[in-house]
Specification:
This protein folds into 2 domains: 296 residues, no CATH class; 131 residues, Jelly Rolls, CATH 2.60.120.380. It has 7 helices and 28 strands. The chain is an alpha+beta fold.
Length: 547
């Protein structure tokens, strides 16, 4: 058997009618060069490992008679990159034959939809065999092993399009392993583009990879493919709140953070499914020959972006859901998991944490309003409409990322009669806007906390909320308090969702806390009600001060 190497070229595939004569068997193997990435959490480090050779799996293969430009065989490679095609009625006695492998998933591998990788002009990449001129069609043709190399742009940025195809195959294989059915939406991956960022466009089911970060970056590619999974199969949807996002920001719109955090989670889950060692990393590298790391962090402990927390942090969302999904047998070199969902138990229905998450996404999320998906939505979906049990362990895993999904110690304090007394000039303990009655401890949204105090008539009094520990930089909460102050007769003396203790300080974003100042005219016990001002910031932690 011979080995031949061919450089990648672009070719639009065209099918033509078949003509009759002898039979011909054509076989061979296609493989590609892959640039593996290092797991890095610091910037400026060399990203790329030595090139590896991988099989081109489940890709479309065509045998073409170049003399007549006729497609004699249209099939595909197997899991080892190998193909065999038996062609009947080949016009003889000879033919000029070339075999091409395309960045196109072979027909039927994942159902009836099309999955492919193209350039910006919608032309698929391909790698050809040598040209076999005047081949005797009575003889079997073995083209040997053909290797697809990468493409280097004039700017020096690189990509291996067959690596993008293999990432597509891994993503689809992982989805089918969790869902049990074929994907029903197509997906096209486009490289290179001049877009400012990499993105997934749901309307045309396309991932666009830019020149500067898209090429060869498995993490980036799996992240954008993760948006495809979320939007297509868990009813996720983009909205006016979609925009620029930052791994280090813990004060993002919770809908944006959830969408981006879930997409990044799929990076680790697909890599784990692929068998990568220590798969829980998100790394972005400059795709030049000597490219350096531009960002990266580890899901298990947030190293690289820590401290982050709260449902307004996409990194915290990823890390919390990773803790839900990984176990002590995850291939990270550590036989002990650092969170309560460690694989030592199964949820009801013998589900792992990862399977429970997928059950929530595939079974419950499509029944929810898509524009309001936040981290709390997934928490509730684990217990309603079916209680899958182990609420304390799951809650404990989420607590580590500043997302308390349980009653605080002051509950029940949902009425004026059960309100918590306030002491003048003393910040309250940390409270959460979360309350669930009994098992299973969910859903917990819609909470109102009440407080009682007795001000002096005729003097100015203020009620103010703050982030936990009165730390304007500690935005590890997505709470958006709305404060209502009532006098002893039940009349409202002040209400607002603004005017909190931090103003516009902290991380430079508007403060979501609330503050009311008033002069009491009636003696007696006043009440304060704190609830959420936002339909998508329904939970979170805060403190309150009477001063």
């Amino acid at each position: 058997m011979t080995t031949r190497v061919s450089w990648l070229v672009l070719l639009a595939a065209t099918a033509f009618p078949r003509i009759a004569s002898a039979d011909l068997q054509v076989s061979g193997t296609f493989q590609y060069e892959k640039r593996p990435m290092k797991n890095l959490t610091r910037t400026g480090l060399r990203c790329w490992k030595a090139l590896e050779i991988r099989p081109i799996r489940f890709a479309q293969v065509q045998v073409i008679n170049t003399a007549t430009n006729t497609v004699l065989f249209d099939g595909g490679t197997d899991a080892n990159g190998h193909f065999i095609g038996v062609i009947s009625d080949v016009p003889g006695p000879t033919a000029d034959i070339v075999v091409r492998c395309f960045t196109h998933v072979r027909a039927g591998q994942f159902g009836s939809q099309v999955f492919n990788v193209t350039d910006a002009s919608n032309v698929e990449y391909s790698v050809p065999s040598s040209l076999y001129s005047g081949w005797n069609v009575q003889q079997p043709l073995d083209i040997g092993t053909v290797t697809a190399h990468g493409i280097t742009l004039p700017s020096g940025h690189m990509d291996h399009p067959f690596n993008s195809l293999d990432n597509l195959v891994w993503m689809l294989s992982y989805f089918e392993s969790q869902s049990g059915y074929h994907p029903f939406d197509p997906l096209r991956v486009v490289w290179p583009t001049n877009n400012v960022s990499n993105l997934y466009v749901p309307n045309d089911h396309t991932v666009y990879l830019n020149v500067f970060r898209g090429g060869d970056n498995d993490g980036v590619q799996f992240h954008e493919m993760g948006h495809y999974l979320h939007i297509s199969y868990a009813a996720g949807i983009s909205g006016s709140w979609v925009g620029i996002h930052d791994l280090m920001d813990s004060n993002q719109d919770p809908r944006l953070s959830f969408m981006e955090g879930v997409a990044t989670l799929f990076t680790g889950l697909i890599r784990d499914f692929r068998g990568d060692f220590d798969p829980g990393y998100y790394v972005v590298c400059n795709p030049t020959a000597t490219g350096a790391s531009e960002m990266g962090y580890r899901f298990e402990d947030g190293y690289g972006v820590y401290p982050v927390g709260g449902a307004g942090s996409e990194a915290a969302v990823t890390c919390a859901l990773w803790d839900m999904s990984d176990t002590f047998v995850s291939p990270d070199g550590n036989s002990v998991d650092d969170d309560p969902v460690d694989g030592s138990f199964l949820f009801q229905g013998l589900l792992t944490g990862e399977q429970l998450m997928w059950n929530a996404l595939l079974q419950v999320f499509p029944t929810l309003p898509p524009t309001g998906q936040v981290f709390e939505s997934l928490w509730n979906a684990c217990f309603v409409p079916i209680d899958w049990d182990h609420q304390p362990e799951l809650s404990g895993a989420f607590d580590a990322w500043q997302m308390p999904m349980h009653n605080d110690s002051a509950e029940p304090d949902n009425s004026a009669a059960t309100g918590t007394p306030l002491s003048f000039g003393v910040w309250s303990p940390v409270h959460t806007l979360y309350y669930a009655i009994g098992a299973p401890g969910a859903p917990g949204n819609g909470d109102s906390d009440f407080f009682r105090f007795s001000p002096t008539v005729g003097l100015s009094n203020s009620i103010t909320t703050s982030y936990p520990n009165n730390d304007c930089y500690s935005v590890f909460t997505d709470v958006d308090p709305y404060v209502i102050v009532k006098d002893p007769l039940g009349a409202i003396v002040g209400q607002t969702d603004s005017g909190g203790s931090c103003g516009n300080s902290g991380n430079g974003e508007p403060d979501r806390n609330a503050g009311v100042t008033f002069v009491p005219v009636t003696a007696g016990t006043y009440t304060v009600e704190v609830k959420s001002a936002s339909p998508y910031r329904r939970t979170g932690a805060y403190q309150i001060l009477w001063h």
